[in-house]
């Protein structure tokens, strides 16, 4: 490309060649800024690589389908028989499709701050800024030419090339797979899909660990193969995000905390807490609201060992010289993740107010199990009203997944991970006898601790509501055991004969006897109820145990 045959009419506009060169260079820089590719985006932090525009959010309505993406699920057939009121729900409470990730676009925007790229490969891509700079130099070089020289030669434009841009940040998404994460599977699966399809990171390594197991975690990929937190020989910024509900015993274990502290020496580490902040105190992660800053010079994805505690919020315990490594603990909120990402990647934030844990934690200790009566009273004082109402309703029925799902719909309108987590992991519920610890995900079976059902019903139960929950359980589980058939007759006031010896599986009878007594059902049907209570020693069929 060359200049025109006529001299440039700069004088008519009060311009000279230097003004035009500045204008061309500024136009190129502004074009890069509009595209999101300008180095000037980071101000004085000239050592940072540049970014490029992100792909569309996979969850947005206008997003285009990607090649290699799984096709959309087929809609339900129109001739599918409707689910009647007496049928078992098709989706149990532990189905990952039960709960979905909220504010996907906000979360994607927060994680986009990790989209750093560095030049890599052969210089074969046009560089607009350097090309404009070359043209500006050429204009300056021709400022002293005569009209004949400019008309004969023109002003050449020398294109500049740059290497391609490659993403540089690796993410290790470490997900807690312990039994307490039962109600968070849908959210964690959605978050995993969102990050893997976002195009933000160089790679997203999916790892899992069991928080019930103390000591350093045994990390495994989705196929169950052992993996390291960081592949050997890999360089560049590395970020580790541990997704958990903080209820596993490992979080209070010194060996596990030492592993977290070691991981924080090789890159940025944070904990993504899936429970509401009001429920964090129920877990084993002790946090303190803290203002932290990074030691200078800071680098993108720098290790947590460079974090310095500046101050703690009034009323919190503060140590001038913390003995452990500060680990940010974040709620699943776009604003909190945005602030952490901006701080971690040395964007525009040099200090961060955050709930921080200190690992190893010198004050961490395992809490002993409290007696049943004290556990119920403490739960009543500390639980949310919705969680207490749900606990009272569940105390009247077996904790079978289908029954729990129906009770949640009746009491809360839908299954809620927060309320279910409060009930199941507040010391009131335990794993039932005979459950295999090696495979908690296949069919997790639960039961209230001895005496908890009667205490919950005494504190918050009302006879009409208890009888309604009993009818709900009969409707869902009816036909599985003679106990449910006879209980339906008792609730309807019909005649009930003496049960046969050994009738009624103990798991059903023992779970519902406290509600039968509280609802005054046993007052009229004392004889058959006593037979069930005394002689129930059978076992339910496969898949029927709660």
Globally, the shape reads: elongated
| Major beta sheet, strand line-up | 4-3-5-6-9-10-7-8
Q: Report strand %.
A: 5-15%
Poorly predicted ranges: 1-5, 38-97, 314-321, 434-444, 537-546
- Give me the Rg, rounded: 32 Å
State the major sheet.
8 strands, mixed
Structural class: alpha/beta
Order of helices and strands: HHEHHEEHEEHEEEEHEHHHHEEHHHHH
Give the averaged pLDDT, no decimals: 76
Fraction of residues in helix: 25-40%
Number of helices: 16
The counted number of beta strands is 12
Distance linking N and C termini: 78 Å
What would you note in describing this structure?
The chain is an alpha/beta fold. The protein is built from 16 helices and twelve strands. It has helices at residues 17-35, 104-111, 128-141, 147-153, 185-197, 254-263, 334-344, 372-382, 385-394, 401-411, 417-424, 452-460, 463-477, 482-492, 506-518, 526-535; strands at residues 117-126, 161-167, 170-176, 203-209, 238-244, 268-273, 288-294, 307-312, 325-331, 351-359, 429-431, 446-448. Strands 4-3-5-6-9-10-7-8 form an eight-stranded mixed β-sheet. The protein has a two-stranded antiparallel ribbon with strand order 1-2. Strands 11-12 form a two-stranded antiparallel sheet. Strand 5 (238-244), helix 6 (254-263) and strand 6 (268-273) form a beta-alpha-beta unit. Helix 10 packs across helix 13 and helix 12 packs parallel to helix 15. The radius of gyration is 32 Å and the shape is elongated. The protein starts with 16 loop residues before the first helix and ends in an 11-residue tail after the last helix. Mean pLDDT is 76; it is low at 1-5, 38-97, 314-321, 434-444 and 537-546.
